[in-house]
Design goal:
With about 270 residues, this protein is mainly alpha-helical. Helix content is about 65%, strand content about 10%. The chain is built from ten helices and seven strands. α3 runs antiparallel to α9 and α4 packs antiparallel against α5.
Amino acid sequence: MQVILIYLALKLGIKRFKKDKLSSIDFKRYENYYREILRNYSPAELSYIDNFEILPEKDIVATLLSLQLNKRINIDDSLSKIKIENNNIEEISSNEKYVLDSIEDGKIKNLNESEFITKVQKDAIKNGLLKESKIKWKKFIRVIILSISFIALMIFICTILFNDFVNNPTNIEDWKLFIMVFAILLVVYLPISIGIYFSTYIIKSKKNSYIRTTKGEAINEKLEGLKNYLKDFSLMNEKSEESLILWENYLIYSVIFNQNVKVVKSMCDKYITI
């Protein structure tokens, strides 16, 4: 019985943890395609809500590709230099502006990774994709009440068994077994069940202090659809200008999904010094 109750407490805690903060494999069974370009968010924001992690080199490369696509910069492969074409801060996120401001002598220099990540998080919060993760005390109190209810039920059952033992004593071994079960019930189950549930929040807050909003969950589901679509994407060989522009957008996604390591390495070697 104790094992079953502890298992249920553990399962409840894990379920709540997963509901509050989805992992990078949230949609491993999600098989639909999504093809549209998510234009209202910077690449780094999308990368962060995808797996709650920023890999600066990858996400800076995606940001540079996006800035070039939007004609903010011109990446000159022949000279291995980045030229700023338009540094107007309107309609760009603070993390994109930070990358722009870090361009010096045609390369990304003096960019602080922690500051970049902080700006990405703030942009995602501003756009309604993230919110701070907080322990939900009301739900925690419910768990305590539920656990105490279980304890009360077990005490009631044990009381019945004890009365039965007093009225019909058999041997000392039965008494020892009763004492052991009662002690485990009171001393072990309640602290463990509450501790397991509470520890999931502690682990979550240590690992990441943000969770997705409802809007963030919807955008992340679209990102998973984009991942599926990119696996089968075949427009690269089409020669129309529209198709080429479309591929440039998808190239940005392939970078933030870490599906295009060669592009990241090549651009880091040429343009990024951090």
